[in-house]
Design goal:
The complex is a heterodimer of chains A (about 625) and B (about 350). Chain A has one domain: Cytochrome c oxidase-like, subunit I domain (Cytochrome C Oxidase, Chain A), CATH 1.20.210. Chain A has 20 helices and two strands. The radius of gyration of chain A is 24 Å and the shape is globular. The two termini of chain A are about 20 Å apart. Chain B starts with a helix and ends in a 14-residue tail after the last helix. Chain B has about 350 residues and is of the alpha+beta class. Chain B has a domain of about 90 residues: Cupredoxins -  blue copper proteins (Immunoglobulin-like, Sandwich). Chain B is built from seven helices and ten strands. The chains are: A mainly alpha (about 625), B alpha+beta (about 350).
């Protein structure tokens, strides 16, 4: 493939290009599209939940369907929306920030995406095949092991497949950051977003195996007659909760740390100031990640682990407030004394500070074990984690999209629409969730299909539903903004925000080889240094020469399809052994792909120096 | 002028009070008006942590607002390049040390309360009740008293009552917000917690761990009565004769239908330990049918005829012979007459 071939193409060719691409920027588009699709789906599920709870004893949804709805809302938002959207942004930006031409394992990158996508589709197939999982996104045993139908089976296989994709993504990013930084880009000169990508990848590497193990045990209990969680046969039901939360708590940081990185970059850029306390920010990130593995049992204060365990986990959890507080104050100090521009990207970031502070504070309140006996599994917890995940992660994703949209797609998102959607979503968000703190303390447990009349819960729930509808409108406006921008948006220059980091040193969108010549990095905020102290553009660290690029491949798609087919086989072989054919066929396809990949040489191709020079004209 | 201000002030304060009271939720359900030892213990920590956190929030918010007002880019300053500050050791130390102190202020009472609420060493001297969580109802067995009952948990006020809890199926969680925080009811081990009501009353109890389609309908009541009334209730319950014939003919037919249709294979009346389904010894005293319905005959007949429409996924559906409307009505009459005690939710101030 040459540069010329990357230009005007037919629709079929574009589809084929995306199916086979190993370019990190195109894989980012795929992640954003896939994650965005599931985000809308999860949002729709949220609206159904809120409509059911608009008044007491409502019958909009049946009890069983309601449980499916809450399960799928949680699972979809965490695994299929928030994480892929973040992985998409990481994919698009992190290699640019370290001055790399791609990630370390482009093939693996593509495989990671397709596994996520097929896993997500498999999970959602359950809606049409007898019912979605209904044991909550936490799938506590024995409710999940005894749940009738195949819903929970879809949950197990869907998450197992998409989880494998995520794990690959994490490993890939780790290796990329360790090995592919441009000359001069030392660890302590990496932008915060790259740092948080790095730490997040470590978390993925250590946290996901716990989920994988848990899901395998669950799978064997449900499909092959084992009894890991079956109490009457000597199993232990609570062990699932440990496995799940040893994964599940770091998962929260897997989501929030990249958002922290996004805000760090945005605050610095739009305040025209270097990030305040860079070193402290880096170490606070690492400390949060480390402590994140030590606190899982705070999800289990009411399980009956005893006062010693509860006390230790309470204190460990409270300790996380310290590095998080450091971050909040450093962001404020970054803006202090700066020259602050407020646009859509900055609005989302500014809204994050008070919203996330509330979420963090209720987190400390929840850490107080005895107080948690009241909060636990009530709407207080629902309010808390939505403040953290919407107020932190979703605001972070939206800030990142507005900030990097020109870099990723070459066009600037419409400001007027951006601001309108922000205000609707922001007001709707607080309207929905603030009152839920009180609903919880007033005696409303979470995951309640109906609440009864005359329990003082009517007004709070009504307000919450109105807020949710506002959020829905805000979200819809953002989608409209994307469509409007892609049709009528203004073309973006290479550096629309007066940026500080390397991604703004190359055109928007970047050529598929990113950097014509690998840049030389002379400090933190390398582009800013060149703009203020140098010649205004990056100095090359190498002479112009041939660039080696990897070949595209359809194998990741086919391999993931194989796992997808095998997934159906595993689920239905319980009813009929003939389905084992699907297991063998699917696994056969996947293994054949691996064999081809291992035996066939992929030489890649070179972009010659002459082509690069012609491009410059 | 002063009088007008005073009036305004009192009206204002009164309406504020009303708002706060309404905002605290339904009395005897809300955790915000604690009426038991555990709930008070939790409430103290909720208040302490709220104050600390509010303090932090106010500081963050003030700095935030000042920053935005003072340092927003102004007209004519488009080319202004701020000083590139790397950091500030003193400031960074301050905002590391102060949070550590604040966390310690919260941690110490948290640990103390955690050990206090987990202290069940004196359980032998107190009242012990074995609690079984079931999809979707609660069973209470009074250890040493030969009393079995379901859905309504009678306890004396001012005394620690130890609940030894286990589940017969999936995980449940027992929560009576006004009296105490919750504790999970696991299938594999007995969890013990104590509750102590400070005031007489009928308190709402909830299941707080997702346990199936009717998770939200697993309500129960804690009926806290004076120690004398409690003793009276124990005596009344122990004096129940499960074979006793009801007074009127309809209820007698109901009792016959109850026996013919094999209801007793699941539902015990009296102190039989059979707890496949809820024990019905004092069914007529209960404040709710199946935990949620008003105790009228009509609703009870509906329940007996089609429990699935009321509590989806319950274990009674399809596990008994089809009943005629008349049979169901007779059984309802019989059950509503099972009123062994003068001490009822009504007398406890429902």
């Amino acid at each position: 493939m040459s540069i010329a071939a990357a230009q005007k193409k037919g629709f079929g060719a574009v589809i084929w290009d995306y199916l086979t691409t190993v370019d990190h920027k195109k894989i980012a588009h795929l992640y954003l599209f896939g994650g965005g699709f599931f985000f809308l789906l999860g949002g729709l599920e949220a609206l159904f939940i809120r409509i059911q709870l608009i008044k007491p004893e409502n019958d909009f949804l049946s009890a069983g369907l309601y449980n499916e709805m809450i399960t799928m809302h949680g699972t979809t938002m965490i695994f299929l929306a928030a994480m892929p959207l973040l992985l998409g942004i990481m994919n698009a930006i992190m290699p640019l920030q370290i001055g790399a031409r791609d990630v370390a394992f482009p093939f693996l990158n593509s495989l990671g995406f397709w596994l996520f996508m097929f896993g997500g589709v498999l999970l959602n197939c359950s809606w049409f095949l007898g019912g979605a999982p209904d044991a909550g996104w936490t799938a506590y045993t024995p409710l999940s092991t005894t749940s009738p139908g195949h819903g929970v089976d879809f949950y197990i296989l869907g998450l197992q497949i998409s989880g494998a994709g995520t794990l690959m993504g994490g490993i890939n990013f780790l290796v990329t950051i360790v090995t592919m930084r441009a000359p001069g880009m030392t660890y302590m000169r990496m932008p915060l977003f790259t740092w948080t990508t790095f730490v997040t990848s470590v978390l993925i590497l250590f946290a996901f195996p716990a989920l994988t193990v848990g899901l395998f045990l669950l799978m064997f209990d449900r499909m092959f007659g084992s009894a890991f969680f079956e109490v009457s046969l000597g199993g232990n039901a609570v062990i699932w909760q440990h496995l799940f939360w040893i994964f599940g708590h770091p998962e929260v940081y897997i989501l929030i740390l990249p958002a922290f990185g996004v805000f760090s970059d945005i605050f610095a850029t739009f305040s025209k100031k270097r990030l305040f306390g860079y070193t402290a920010m880096v170490f606070a990130t690492i400390l949060i990640a480390f402590l994140g593995f030590m606190v899982w049992a705070h999800h289990m204060f009411t399980v009956g682990l005893g006062p010693v365990a509860n006390a230790i986990f309470a204190i460990a959890t409270m300790a996380i407030a310290v590095p998080t507080g450091i971050k909040i104050f450093n962001w404020l100090a970054t803006m202090w004394g700066g020259s602050i521009t407020i646009n859509s990207a900055m609005l989302w970031s500014l809204a994050f500070i008070p919203s996330f502070t509330i979420g963090g504070m209720t987190g400390v309140m929840l850490a107080s074990a005895v107080a948690d006996y009241q909060y636990h599994d009530s709407y207080f917890v629902v309010a808390h984690f939505h403040y953290v995940i919407v107020g932190g992660v979703v605001f972070g994703i939206l800030a990142a999209l507005h900030y990097w949209w020109p870099k990723m797609f070459g066009k600037i998102l419409n400001e007027a629409l951006g601001k309108l959607s922000f205000w609707l979503f922001f007001i709707g968000f607080h309207l929905t969730f603030f009152i839920q703190h009180f609903l919880g303390l007033m005696g409303m447990p979470r995951r309640y299909w109906v609440f009864l009349e005359d329990q003082g819960l009517d007004i709070g729930n009504l307000v919450s539903t109105i807020g949710a509808l506002l959020m829905g409108v805000g979200g819809l406006l953002f989608v409209i903004n994307i469509i409007y921008t892609s049709v009528k948006g203004e073309k973006a220059p290479a550096d629309p925000w007066d940026g500080r980091t390397l991604e703004w040193a190359i055109p928007s969108p970047p050529p598929f080889y990113n950097f014509k010549q690998t840049p030389l990095v002379r400090g933190l905020d390398p582009l800013w240094i060149e703009k203020t102290e140098g010649k205004g553009e990056m100095t090359a660290a190498e002479p112009l020469g041939d660039i080696h690029m990897p070949d595209g491949s359809i194998l990741p798609f086919i391999m993931s399809l194989g796992f997808f087919i095998a997934g159906f086989g595993f689920i239905y072989q319980v009813d009929q052994k003939a389905w084992l054919v699907a297991v063998f066929a699917g696994m056969g396809i996947a293994l054949a792909c691996m064999l081809i990949r291992s035996l066939k040489d992929y030489h890649g191709f070179h972009i010659t120096k002459e082509e690069l020079e012609r491009e410059a004209d | 002028m002063k009088g007008w201000m005073g009036k305004f002030k009192s009206v204002f304060l009164l309406s504020l009070l009303a708002l706060v009271l309404a905002g605290c939720g339904k009395e005897n359900l809300t955790a915000l008006v604690p009426k038991g030892y555990g709930a008070e213990s939790s409430m103290n920590l909720i208040i302490l942590s709220s104050i600390i956190m509010l303090f932090v929030f106010v500081i963050v918010f003030l700095v935030y607002v000042i920053t935005l007002v003072r340092f927003r880019k102004k007209k004519g300053q488009e080319n202004f390049i701020p000083k590139q500050v790397e950091g500030n050791k003193t400031l960074e130390t301050v905002w590391t040390v102060i949070p550590i102190i604040l966390v310690l202020v919260l941690a110490v009472p948290t640990v103390a309360a955690t050990f206090d609420l987990a202290d069940t060493s004196k359980s032998k001297d107190g009242i012990n009740i074995d609690v079984t969580g079931n999809q979707y109802w609660w069973h209470f067995s009074y250890a040493g008293e030969e009393i079995q009952t379901s859905q309504d948990l009678y306890i004396p006020t001012g005394e620690k009552v130890y609940l030894n809890m286990q589940s017969s199926d999936v995980i449940h969680s027992l929560w009576v917000p006004s009296i105490s925080g919750k504790m999970d009811v696991n299938p594999e081990n007995v969890n013990t917690m104590y509750i102590e009501a400070k005031e007489e009353g009928v308190y709402w109890g909830k299941c707080a761990e997702l346990c199936g389609p009717s998770h939200s309908l697993m309500d129960f009541k804690v009926i806290a009565v004076s120690p004398e009334e409690y003793d009276q209730w124990v005596e009344d319950m122990q004096g129940v004769d499960p074979e006793a014939q009801p007074q009127d003919a309809v209820a007698q037919d109901g009792k016959a239908a109850f026996e013919e249709n094999n209801c007793m294979s699941c539902h015990a009346i009296g102190s039989s330990p059979n707890a496949v389904g809820p024990n019905l010894t004092n069914f007529g005293d209960r404040s709710r049918i199946a935990g949620i319905l008003e105790p009228t005959k009509e609703k009870l007949v509906n329940w007996i005829m089609d429990p699935e429409s009321i509590k989806p996924g319950n274990k009674m559906t399809n596990n008994y012979p089809e009943l005629s409307k008349e049979e169901a009505s007779n059984i309802a009459e019989y059950l509503l007459q099972l009123q062994p005690s003068e001490i009822t939710p009504e007398s406890a101030g429902n």
